[in-house]
Amino acid sequence: xxxxxxxxxxxxxxxxxxxxxxxxxxxxxxxxxxxxxxxxxxxxxxxxxxxxxxxxxxxxxxxxxxxxxxxxxxxxxxxxxxxxxxxxxxxxxxxxxxxxxxxxxxxxxxxxxxxxxxxxxxxxxxxxxxxxxxxxxxxxxxxxxxxxxxxxxxxxxxxxxxxxxxxxxxxxxxxxxxxxxxxxxxxxxxxxxxxxxxxxxxxxxxxxxxxxxxx
Length: 215
Description:
Layout: H1 2-26, E1 33-42, E2 52-58, E3 66-75, E4 81-91, E5 94-102, E6 111-123, E7 126-136, E8 140-142, E9 148-152, E10 162-169, E11 174-185, E12 191-194, E13 199-203
């Protein structure tokens, strides 16, 4: 009987503990703003505007939903041309808006490009995306309040957001491409969480034999 009583008591405490944990998990605040600090280190950009890549911030975690897309060192709209930085507002496979933040190519010397991508809920089903604190030896300072584009936010929060990045051209020119830190904020601007380690998309050592492979 004593062991049965202890077992019952232990089970009760375990159940209560799980209930409390679940209650606290359910109280987690919704995410209303996300900031990603990016860094790209370029190894001798090629004369053919390499490397070229894109970065994406998806609002609702739905590939057919709303997302912001940046095309780096090339522009797709209204026709594809080398060089520059284009900001696109997309829904599924359709672009609903775009503008050119930069129109020049990366130069032929090594460069480190840093910038912050910001996704923020601004209304009941609205969000904005912008770049801020951008810097490059070739491009100088870029981003800010003028570098903003509107997006649809189906859920009214960013709890399910996801990011993506693809290098299309000049992979051997990329020494490192990474997100140094991700910060998430609630509706009052209070920090909810920040990442503890960088998110690396590409990291490589120089390979002289392949130096011209992607030019």
